[in-house]
Amino acid sequence: MIPKLLAALLALGLMSAPARAQEAPAAPDAEKEEARKELRKKALDLLDVLVGDARALRVPENRVRILTGAADLLWTHDEKRARALLREAAAHVNEAAQRARSGDSERRHRIFWAVMALREETLRTVARRDPTLALELLHATRQAPPPVAPANADSVADPELRLENNLALQVAAADPKRALKMAEESLAKGLSFEVTDLAARLHELDPEAGRGFAAEVVRKIRAESLTRGRLALFMAGRMLELTRAGTSSVMLTASGEGRATHLEKPLKLDPQSERDLYDVLVSAALAGHESEYLEMLLEPRLAEIEKHWPERAAALRRRVEERQRGQDPGERAWRQYAPLWSQDSPEPLLEAAAKAPPKVRESLYTGAAWKAAAAGDHERARRIIEENLRHSPDYSKLLEHLDTLSLAHALRRNKLEEARRHVAGLRPKEKRAAALAQLAALAAAAGDKKLARELLEEARPLAGQRPRNVEQLNAHLQLARGYALVEPARSFEIVEAVIDRANEMIAAVDVLDGFLGGPEIFRSDELVMHAGLASLEAIFNQYGKELAELARADFERAALAAARFQRIEVRTMARLLIAQGLLSDRKPLGQSPEDLLRSAVQVQQ
């Protein structure tokens, strides 16, 4: 919970710089350019300060994140210095890894994977700037294998190969030829599950080159003994899945998390590679390896298999039928409804639900409601839930989720008043406050500041006077974002109070750390900034636009707000975010209305 709190609190700290209360007269272009130069200079000076502060930090992971973020911002201003900082950060990655050499095996294994996640986070930033430097630092930070092999070791690739292929995936969009070279070099060292998605991505960008690389992957898979390792088997199955249009491609991180992308075009294999892939999978299925997985994968493709191997197709069909006869009756019941889920209309699910057994009926009605909502008919979705799922233990949650979808639907059509009515269905009141404040921010962005103020005044009493839990803290965060656009003085009041509260909470956790159990929170009397949750990139993508505008409005006040954090590690990260708002040449990721509302109303556990 603490890293999530930190992410929110850092963002709040940077929102203390109030935006202009009214539009200033348009300045001449020369004056605007001079003001921009002055702000850049202040931001670069701030980078100098925080780089010095970062070197004074005791936890190497914190030094890595701040130095990497600073280097990324310096790249377009002083590339030589940026490269030096990135190499320095890589040295601190190796320092962090040294902790994995002592203690019991479980501790060493946990530290190993935490360092791998930190390393990937760093290399991903470097690869955006220079893939060659990223590969250099990949090799410079190479770690010994994990001290404890995972239970599924035969289906997990070398972590180094996974990182190499993830870097190639990142490079592919900007430089497909370079990515292909990286992928071929990695494939020569061994198999990695990520290489299948890389083949599909390269095929999208350069069909001929992608098809050639996919053939190399199939040959490599075929050369592996599927009886001795599951990795090649699952890679073969994934390659077959990618030959279908609309497949999701997931780039796995070193920590095992995934970032999904969508493949618009199916992977096209040459005839020989396709035949070889089927041969590998059918042979493994008939030999009894991962039989259930393979039979389910190959069952829809029996007609294609029969073209090449009629006898083997017949044997495989018999195995599928035997498995289905041995299935639990409930599982067989589910199979008969499977085709209904792929249809856009809720009608087939509703008709089936009326005749379905009780265990299946609730899921069918739920699916029908979401299909109606997806089609824009939220009133019908509500009727389906109210008429058929009133006695479900999830009834309240279903209606709440539907209200969130209805909010997003209204926002897509710029119907803010309609969206306001849907907010009334959200529970508890802190969620309602957060959603109202988010609507206010959207109204202000659309130019309706009167409506924005009304929404904020409605939301403020619901958020509570002083944040006492994560939900209330989130509501205060949304209030600060909204007021920054229409009444900056109130935004500052909210933020100032929350920063003081943040200092109290962090101090309290410092006292209790060690008694709470769970992941490490403090080390060497310093808050450890964990990957993802409190990372620079995560916060920038969520709050980057607001941070940039507020820092431009009043740089000094933003800097003073960051200085209110009592701990140097938090203060340094906050200063880095200010600099990022002014210097970054990357735009924050866009968010859909659904994402915006989800960030406002979700329960942050």
> Sheet with the most strands?
2 strands, antiparallel
Outline the low-pLDDT stretches.
15-24, 249-260, 589-605
Principal-axes geometry comes out as: globular
Helix content: 55-70%
Q: What value does the Rg take, in angstroms?
A: 27 Å
Structural class: mainly alpha
Distance between the termini: 6 Å
Major sheet: order of its strands?
A: 1-2
Bin the strand percentage: under 5%
| Oligomer description | single chain
Number of beta-strand segments = 4
Topology:
Elements: H1 2-14, H2 29-55, H3 60-74, H4 79-97, H5 105-129, H6 131-140, H7 159-172, H8 176-189, H9 194-205, H10 207-223, H11 230-241, E1 248-252, E2 258-262, H12 271-286, H13 291-298, H14 302-308, H15 310-325, H16 329-337, H17 347-355, H18 358-374, H19 378-388, H20 395-412, H21 416-423, H22 429-445, H23 449-459, H24 470-486, H25 488-512, E3 522-523, E4 526-527, H26 536-553, H27 555-563, H28 568-583, H29 593-601
Antiparallel strand pairs: 1-2, 3-4
Helix pairs in contact: 1-24, 1-25, 1-26, 1-28, 2-3, 2-28, 3-4, 3-5, 3-28, 4-5, 5-6, 5-7, 6-7, 7-8, 7-9, 8-9, 8-10, 9-10, 10-11, 10-12, 11-12, 12-13, 14-15, 17-18, 18-19, 19-20, 20-21, 20-29, 21-22, 22-23, 22-24, 22-29, 23-24, 24-25, 26-27, 26-28, 27-28
